[in-house]
Amino acid sequence: MTSYKNQKKLLAAVDCIIFGFYEQTLKVLLIQRGFKPEEGKWSLMGGFIQPTEGPDQAANRVLSSLTGLHGVYLEQLHTFGDPNRDPYERTLSTAYFALIDIQQYEKQITEAYHAEWFALNELPELIFDHEDMITMALEKLRYKAALHPILFELLPTKFTIPQLHGLYESLYNTSLDKRNFNRKVLSTNLLVKQNDKEKTSSKKGAYYYKLNKKSYKNNFQAFLTMIPVPVSFKTM
Amino acid sequence: MTSYKNQKKLLAAVDCIIFGFYEQTLKVLLIQRGFKPEEGKWSLMGGFIQPTEGPDQAANRVLSSLTGLHGVYLEQLHTFGDPNRDPYERTLSTAYFALIDIQQYEKQITEAYHAEWFALNELPELIFDHEDMITMALEKLRYKAALHPILFELLPTKFTIPQLHGLYESLYNTSLDKRNFNRKVLSTNLLVKQNDKEKTSSKKGAYYYKLNKKSYKNNFQAFLTMIPVPVSFKTM
DNA sequence: GCAAAAGTGTTCTCAATACACCCATGC
DNA sequence: GCATGGGTGTATTGAGAACACTTTTGC
User: Fold this and answer.
1) Which string of DSSP letters, residue by residue, matches A119-180?
2) What pLDDT is recorded for position A234?
3) Which residues cross the membrane (chains A, B) (predicted)?
């Protein structure tokens, strides 16, 4: 160990893996870079950490500048710092992943950034190590969502159980028994049944539910075991 | 988003939370700083990320320079970057936690660094945000160890089931039924019984076991549920 | 009246828990 | 011979998994 003097400084950035769910599919929001280097290529939304902010703040700033959203679910994932990860200049990047309700973000902003949603099996070519970041984010999301009731963050305030069911099936690329699934989610006491129904995706219509926010906050740590346990868990 | 020009660079460091287990207690290895600022105070072992290395390499370098160990369990925990976390100069620090077999590290090295083992409830005052780092590392260790067979990394090659039992009890600060515990660990098929016994801690002696390395590698992702589930899980 | 999705109950199996006694040995 | 820690078996309970039919309604 040595003193602070003579230590090389480096650029520090954040990158956001922004997940959204629509058309029964989990997607990520990518932008087409409007600046060099790699202009025109696809990448995660990112930005440099400014002198007055910490990484969390930087990630929040970046996220809300792209989506217009504040207070959404945002969690630090991992710091990537291979000396050659950015061929133009040594840059450390701390990746964050965000879960947003796709119905609430401001479309005009994302359009101004040339942002688009991509299904996870249809990703375009990405700059640097951004594909690794997405892979790791997806693994962590799978891991967490199997244990904690986190996926509600991807749904609108009012949602139906079949929607939630589809979300789990999409994330784990599996099929889950409807009856067992319903019983399990309802047994958490996290859901409050509404009186109205969502009628676009079926004739019968599915009841809307809302999150019981208080119970959600208290039970977030609670285990769920929504998913039959050994579903492709990678190391966290 | 902006180009690379005019972006402020900052110092980037790593800090290692090094866990060890002896005297039936989980401990962390701390050093007494031999340089300014904060000379003489206790801190985690750390170092700056060099131009030719990534954070993982830096953490490995720092860890082995203190312990003499290579190839031990080391995992990135979190990046701390509050603008004021280091009052002397803006520094980003990526924290790593390591699990070592306390019998294998080289004592002369740690002594040269004025390093000492501290039980987690007897920590001295630490510089900067190092206490937060330890708290977070402990939470993550608890979380992971409840789900994955990770604690073997803290034990010597040959260990007894009562030792393992004590380790779990120490980490979770709880008591676990001996019979159920034995049944569970043995049912994982991770352990290979040896013919000799450890005789210092009892008259009867306890059989030594070794890890089945192959099975360990294959089953590391496997869930364990060694711990009654809702044991103080904080968000990961 | 039929297609399409929503909603609901029961049985079985297995794993988690609780719990108490015998064993081996050093002193 | 007794104190100390090591080692083992059983009965009960609850949760997860498998599984099929009825309901509603737009067309």
Assistant:
1) ETTS---BSTTHHHHHHHHHHHHHHHHHHS--GGGGS-SSEEHHHHHHHHHHHHTS---HHH
2) 31
3) none
